[in-house]
Amino acid sequence: MGSKEKRTLFIAGIILILFLSVFSVSQSQHLLKLYVEDNPNFSRVIIEASFPLSFDFEKRSSFLKVRIVTDVAFRIQREPFYSRLIKSLGWSKERHDYILTIRTKSRNFNYDYFTITSPPRLVIDFSQVEEKTRDSRAGLKGKEISEREDALSSTSALSRSRSLSSQRMKTVVIDPGHGGPLEPGATGRYGTLEKDITLAISLRLKTIIEQNFGFRVVLTREKDVSISLENRAAMANNNKADLFISIHMNSSYRKDAHGPETFFLSSEATDDEARRLAYLENYPTEIEEGIVGENEDEIAMILWDMAQSAYLIQSSLLAESIQKELNSLLRTRNRGIKQAPFKVLTGVACPAVLVEVAFISNSNEERNLRREWFQKEIAKAIYQGLVNYIELYSQE
Which of 131, 207, 368, 373 is the most exposed place for a label (fewest CB within 10 A)? Predict the structure, then answer.
């Protein structure tokens, strides 16, 4: 072999080594980040990855094991933390699985979780269970335990809520959007109906408010029945509502649209999407029948001749408070509070908002909306927004 051939082979070998090195580095660039955040009522552990997450849980004594199943090699990045409830985070490997051990400072804890897809995140919320309450839970089953734990996991919020119950606010009306055979609302890719999810979340929200406040809570519907938009507002006024919250699911032709949006009333929509959404909510049966067009002049006339105009400032404060809590829960970009001419808000003689909790047209959010734990988290976030609003309003 001549010197030229040797030189060629040498260069080829160098190129191969460099290629393998680059390939190896690229394969190890996957990253898994760990965060711990303390909130007033719970401690949150966030696992954020650059690759899809598959996991399961095992609760033991004072710690929770999270088994992450993956063939991906990754680096772990942890931020220093101090938490009232979380003591430490530990890693180990068992065959092809990775084990995250989250050790708490108490044997008596509950946990809930939800997932976010972009980027992949697993969010686990830990709450303290009082010892005396744990003993009193004997004999409770299923839904009763879940509802009781909702109240007990927010001890500080509970004491604040009771002190606020003596304020002038006495009645909250919750409006589960849509209902009945002719008005199912938006439909998700997997067949999820908006009317079913709005009712499920509203029932959970009613339970949480009643357990933590001395308020009377009225639902505009408690089963799958059809109620006109005008009658929903009339029910609020007839019950002398101090707050009105209408629960809905969002929908968009953009499949990547995601996150919550909270609205209060205005004769002018914030943007084209808000205008389209208001039309879909105002004329659901006409959309299904193919009727096109929108009588905006008629809507504007109704808006100018209503009691709701006196409550727009309070409505905007309530919308902002709820939106902030939903953003924190879902860790989504703040889409901001918006305004639109929603018929269901017209004529309501109290602060009133419409909450689009998530996009049912987004397959990932649709899957979460079908799950009971996610519905419970949404209800808790709206409730916390309500608490924050009442604290702010009571200082005025």
Answer: 131
